[in-house]
Design brief:
The longest helix is centred in the middle third of the chain and has 11 residues, at 84-94. The N and C termini lie far apart (41 Å). A hairpin with a 4-residue loop joins strand 1 and strand 2 (37-43). The protein is an alpha/beta fold. It has 7 helices and 9 strands. The protein folds into 2 domains: 8-71, DNA primase, catalytic core, N-terminal domain (DNA primase DNAg catalytic core, N-terminal domain, Alpha-Beta Complex); 84-198, Dna Topoisomerase Vi A Subunit, Chain: A, domain 2 (3-Layer(aba) Sandwich).
Length: 200
């Protein structure tokens, strides 16, 4: 990560979305001038950097067939939860882990004082993440994007045999299609979280 710069002008794109520079410093967010991407480290559960992910700032990325998000090294399988090593203390203290899809959801939640969240960096739980959550043995609150039904995820169905699972779902139509539960602001998130349901 030392090769990338903390360019406040370029990082303003995420500041405009509600993520402060302070939070970006916490999660190691930088800017890569070579690829014109906001970049952030992917860490294992111990906090060691295992990869770097970049989000393009090119507004015409679709037309140019540029990936919106990309990993800088071949990933294989993702044997980690994004943000766990940064938030482990709060997770263990609350005995609850909130799981989002994307890294920016973790950062937005952090802005609101919600320090016990992580991200699976996709729309489904993989077998390695399943095993880790079983061993962790605390309440798991899934807060995936609006269009994801966690009842369709085989690994989540397996997980509920071992830990309590709750679901932050858009039951009251507070979100637009494909929005993450944090995308509509803190007050909407608060309502969604308060109305979460157990699926055990």
């Amino acid at each position: 990560m030392e090769r990338y710069e903390f360019n406040t002008d370029k990082l303003q794109a995420w500041v405009n979305e509600g993520i402060s520079l302070e939070t970006m410093r916490k999660f190691g967010v930088h800017y890569d001038s070579f690829s014109n991407r906001i970049v952030f480290p992917i860490k294992n559960y111990s906090g060691d950097i295992i990869n770097v992910c970049g989000r393009t700032l090119d507004k015409d990325f679709k037309e140019k067939e540029i990936r919106k998000y990309t990993y800088f090294k071949p990933l294989g399988y993702l044997d980690t939860l994004y943000g766990f090593s940064d938030n482990v203390q709060a997770i263990l203290e609350k005995k609850e882990i909130i799981i989002f899809e994307g890294c920016k959801s973790v950062m937005l939640a952090d802005e609101w004082g919600i320090k016990n969240s992580c991200a699976i960096l996709t729309s489904h739980l993989n077998p390695q993440q399943l095993i880790f959550l079983i061993k962790l043995g605390i309440r798991v609150v899934f807060a995936l994007d609006e269009d994801v039904n966690i009842r369709d995820d085989d690994n989540i169905q397996r997980l509920k045999r071992y830990v309590r699972i709750e679901w932050v779902k858009n039951f009251d139509n507070l979100l637009s299609p494909k929005m993450a539960p944090v995308d509509a602001g803190f007050e909407v998130w608060k309502k969604l979280y308060e109305r979460r349901r157990s699926i055990n």
